[in-house]
Amino acid sequence: MVQIVKTIQEVRETVKAWKRAGDQVALVPTMGFLHEGHQSLMNAAKAANARVVVSIFVNPMQFGPTEDLASYPRDLDKDQLLCQQSGVDLIFHPDADEMYSPDFCSFVDMTGLTEGLCGSSRPVHFRGVCTVVSKLFNIVQPDRAYFGQKDAQQLAVIRRMVRDLNIDVQVIGCPIIREQDGLAKSSRNSYLNREERQAALCLHAAIQSGQQLIQNGAKDCQKIITQMSALINQQPLAKIDYISIVDAETLIPVEQITRSVLCAMAVYIGKTRLIDNFIFEIPN
After folding, report:
1. Taking the CB of residue 185, how many other CB atoms lie within 10 A of it?
2. 185: which residues sit within 8 A by CB, 6+ positions away?
3. How far apart are CA 201 and CA 198, in angstroms?
4. Where exactly are the structural domains of the chain?
5. Fold of the domain spanning 3-174
6. Architecture of domain 187-278
7. Across the strands, what pairs with 238?
8. Which 8-state DSSP code applies to residue 249?
9. CA-closest candidate to residue 158, choices 76, 79, 62, 94
10. How far, in Å, are 218, 223, 227 from residue 188 at the CA level?
11. pTM for the structure as a whole
12. Which DSSP helix (H) or strand (E) runs through 267?
């Protein structure tokens, strides 16, 4: 049975014992309510490492005052079962006061990569993400950490944070896992009613359209964004937060596709904000 611990001390003692035995350790940071997307990260971690730690922590620091911290879905029993199926060794499930003392005042702020895309409408989000992930890296001391490509901006930000702060961990990005009809797996999909769930397919339709345009030789980013937007705007329940094409590494918007790019979007379906993306790579 996968072990669940709630304190930093327990994690550190366990990982130190593993490392004394020569085991490589992987970390999969999550907020819980795990699904097949998370499971793909856990499976990749287990395939390349002797030991796997999954953190399950709904991080209050990355939620804005009007966001869904209180209602964010939680199901620890199901999470434990999925971890067990993937061969996870340890679940770190701390309370907020274990991670943040009452006088907590230290943060990881990043500029340049966090103002655009999701950062423009969620201004506190990446400060919270970077702070909690840096804490998890310090607590677990993993050799490798696994993140999903669905949160493409987060992945780019974490990679830069690791580089800039000389954190000794290899960051591994794993492909987006989708439902059979193309909708990207997300814990927030559970918010959608039946009509909204059908409406959400407009995101994948727009992604496919953008990919096809670029594969057919389109270079003008605004024209690509306009066509993708038109597809989403046909859906009455959809409201675009943003669609943007940016440099895949710097996340700076580009006008013409002359190098590898990330095309990312956030769209409200009813009250639920969903994200999706694709990367178009141009060989160096």
Report:
1. 17
2. 35, 36, 37, 150, 176, 177, 178, 179
3. 6
4. 3-174, 187-278
5. Rossmann fold (3.40.50)
6. 2-Layer Sandwich (3.30)
7. 269
8. T
9. 62
10. 33, 30, 26
11. 0.94
12. strand 261-269
- For tokens 């950490």, what's the residue? 145
Check if the beta carbon of residue 265 is closer than 8 Å to that of residue 244: yes
Q: Which two tokens stand for residue 101?
A: 């003392």
Instruction: Give the type of residue at 17.
Output: A
Give the 3-state secondary structure of 83-103: HHHCCCCEEECCCHHHHCCCC
Q: Where are the alpha helices (DSSP H) in the chain?
A: 8-20, 36-48, 76-85, 96-99, 118-121, 125-140, 152-164, 194-199, 201-215, 221-233
CA torsion, ordered 67, 68, 69, 70, to nearest 10 deg: 130
CA distances (Å), origin 65, targets 28, 37, 60, 122, 123: 26, 27, 10, 10, 11
b/e string for 154-172 if b means 16 or more Cβ within 10 A? bbbbbebbbeeeebebebb
Q: What is the full per-residue pLDDT of the chain (284 aa) written as tens digits? A: 899 999 999 999 999 999 999 999 999 999 999 999 999 999 999 999 999 999 999 999 999 998 999 999 999 999 999 999 999 999 999 999 999 999 999 999 988 889 989 999 898 999 999 999 999 999 999 999 999 999 999 999 999 999 999 999 999 999 999 999 999 999 999 999 999 999 999 999 999 999 999 999 999 999 999 999 999 999 999 999 999 999 998 999 999 999 999 999 999 999 999 999 999 998 76
Residues marked active site are found at: 38
Sign, CA torsion 278/229/249/35:
negative
* All residues at 6 or more sequence positions from 222 whose CB lies less than 8 Å from its CB, including other chains: 255
Handedness of CA 202, 204, 206, 209 (dihedral sign): negative
> How far is it, in rounded angstroms, from Cα 109 to Cα 7?
25
Question: What sign results for the dihedral spanned by CA atoms 277, 283, 110, 33?
Answer: positive
Residue listed under structure tokens 């309370």: 95
